[in-house]
Amino acid sequence: MVGEEGAFVLGWDEVLTEEELSVTLKVLCMSEEEFKEYKEQDGWEDDSEEEENSTLSNEALSRLKAPCKKLLYDSVLLTLESYGADLKAEQDLLNNKEAYEKLSRREQQALHVRYGQKRILHQLLELVQ
Predict the structure, then answer these.
(1) Which CATH architecture has domain 18-128?
(2) Per mean pLDDT, which range of 18-22, 50-54, 80-84 is the poorest?
(3) pTM here?
(4) Where are the domains positioned within the chain?
(5) CB of 76 within 8 A of CB of 121?
(6) Which run of H or E residues covers position 23?
């Protein structure tokens, strides 16, 4: 369901792999009965117009059903735990000119990427609380 990479791509304003995330959330939040029916029908053959026209914008994420929000929230926490440092530590390093300049160019770029990723994940936490 999550494609080759096994991950979802989040942007500042919406989920960029919305179809994969939407289907994954639906399946993982199904009851056993609903899942059996889903398997028997080989998935959803006819998506409703509402689902077809919806996007997983930040606003839509905040309106997800409670089980889906909980699943996303817990997943984001696990992802954040996989990083070596928290958001504040990264921000402190970015703000400490002396320490930042001691980093190689590659380390500086990696710091910026990690910091951006963590900010997006923290934003998602707020949306699904």
Answers:
(1) Alpha-Beta Complex (3.90)
(2) 50-54
(3) 0.79
(4) 18-128
(5) yes
(6) helix 18-28
